Amino acid sequence: MRKKEAFPWESVVLATKNKGKIKEFTRMFSHWNVRVLTMEDDLDFPDVVEDGETFEANARKKAEEIMKATGLAALADDSGLEVAALDGKPGVYSARFAGEHASDADNNAKLVQLMKDVPEAEREARFVSVLALALPGDDIILVRGTCEGRIVLEASGTNGFGYDPYFYLPEKERTMAELAPDEKNAVSHRGVAVRKLTAELAERFA
Ligand SMILES: O=c1nc[nH]c2c1ncn2[C@H]1C[C@H](O)[C@@H](COP(=O)(O)OP(=O)(O)OP(=O)(O)O)O1
Ligand SMILES: [Mg+2]
């Protein structure tokens, strides 16, 4: 059996309302020595306004507010898609690209609309995930993971969430939504960030 990763607290609460993220974190933390709680557990879970201009600012805000409300170590993820031909958009506005209450389908439709006249060779994009782990007290750890790919105009695959069906990974010759959960975690922005967080915790709390 795989050795459990050390975690300095007994529990961690996932400071997110995104079911796709919850699935991915739960899977990645299954070999951590920690109890993972979510908004489904009976916790005080306030709505956090994401008004920061950077992934770091929003991740920090989500983690700190949920840590304060629950009294538990809280892990937040602020993530999104940066498209080169769109000057890095939608970036921190990825969840609200097509409007305040936009669905993944609405956001993807807007992406395809804006990308359809961009030559295929110029469709580079990257996913970014910034994780903030707010520890009880004032301590906070921030890490950033990225994943490079290309935008495609036709959806492929049904795994994952968000922009995954339109995000093609040249080295895998598949979209993110065509990868199995463990394959996604091995290459994704979120997977990269989780491994950085593991290393940081090992260094600080060895
Ligand atoms: O692996 C991913 N695969 C596809 N799309 C992704 C991914 N990671 C982030 N994304 C997109 C979804 C959403 O449009 C935005 C995140 O927005 P973001 O505010 O961080 O998350 P959210 O509002 O869904 O949940 P919450 O803030 O409660 O964590 O980027
Ligand atoms: Mg959000």
UniProtKB/TrEMBL annotation:
<keyword id="KW-0547">Nucleotide-binding</keyword>
<feature type="binding site">
    <location>
        <begin position="161"/>
        <end position="164"/>
    </location>
    <ligand>
        <name>substrate</name>
    </ligand>
</feature>
<dbReference type="InterPro" id="IPR002637">
    <property type="entry name" value="RdgB/HAM1"/>
</dbReference>
<feature type="binding site">
    <location>
        <position position="78"/>
    </location>
    <ligand>
        <name>Mg(2+)</name>
    </ligand>
</feature>
<dbReference type="GO" id="GO:0000166">
    <property type="term" value="F:nucleotide binding"/>
</dbReference>
<dbReference type="InterPro" id="IPR020922">
    <property type="entry name" value="dITP/XTP_pyrophosphatase"/>
</dbReference>
<dbReference type="GO" id="GO:0017111">
    <property type="term" value="F:ribonucleoside triphosphate phosphatase activity"/>
</dbReference>
<keyword id="KW-0378">Hydrolase</keyword>
<keyword id="KW-0479">Metal-binding</keyword>
<feature type="binding site">
    <location>
        <begin position="189"/>
        <end position="190"/>
    </location>
    <ligand>
        <name>substrate</name>
    </ligand>
</feature>
<feature type="binding site">
    <location>
        <begin position="16"/>
        <end position="21"/>
    </location>
    <ligand>
        <name>substrate</name>
    </ligand>
</feature>
<comment type="function">
    <text>Pyrophosphatase that catalyzes the hydrolysis of nucleoside triphosphates to their monophosphate derivatives, with a high preference for the non-canonical purine nucleotides XTP (xanthosine triphosphate), dITP (deoxyinosine triphosphate) and ITP. Seems to function as a house-cleaning enzyme that removes non-canonical purine nucleotides from the nucleotide pool, thus preventing their incorporation into DNA/RNA and avoiding chromosomal lesions.</text>
</comment>
<feature type="active site" description="Proton acceptor">
    <location>
        <position position="78"/>
    </location>
</feature>
<dbReference type="GO" id="GO:0009146">
    <property type="term" value="P:purine nucleoside triphosphate catabolic process"/>
</dbReference>
<dbReference type="GO" id="GO:0036220">
    <property type="term" value="F:ITP diphosphatase activity"/>
</dbReference>
<comment type="similarity">
    <text>Belongs to the HAM1 NTPase family.</text>
</comment>
<dbReference type="GO" id="GO:0036222">
    <property type="term" value="F:XTP diphosphatase activity"/>
</dbReference>
<dbReference type="Pfam" id="PF01725">
    <property type="entry name" value="Ham1p_like"/>
</dbReference>
<keyword id="KW-0460">Magnesium</keyword>
<dbReference type="GO" id="GO:0046872">
    <property type="term" value="F:metal ion binding"/>
</dbReference>
<feature type="binding site">
    <location>
        <position position="79"/>
    </location>
    <ligand>
        <name>substrate</name>
    </ligand>
</feature>
<feature type="binding site">
    <location>
        <position position="184"/>
    </location>
    <ligand>
        <name>substrate</name>
    </ligand>
</feature>
<comment type="subunit">
    <text>Homodimer.</text>
</comment>
<dbReference type="InterPro" id="IPR029001">
    <property type="entry name" value="ITPase-like_fam"/>
</dbReference>
<protein>
    <recommendedName>
        <fullName>dITP/XTP pyrophosphatase</fullName>
        <ecNumber>3.6.1.66</ecNumber>
    </recommendedName>
</protein>
<keyword id="KW-0546">Nucleotide metabolism</keyword>
<dbReference type="GO" id="GO:0035870">
    <property type="term" value="F:dITP diphosphatase activity"/>
</dbReference>
<dbReference type="GO" id="GO:0009117">
    <property type="term" value="P:nucleotide metabolic process"/>
</dbReference>
<dbReference type="GO" id="GO:0005829">
    <property type="term" value="C:cytosol"/>
</dbReference>
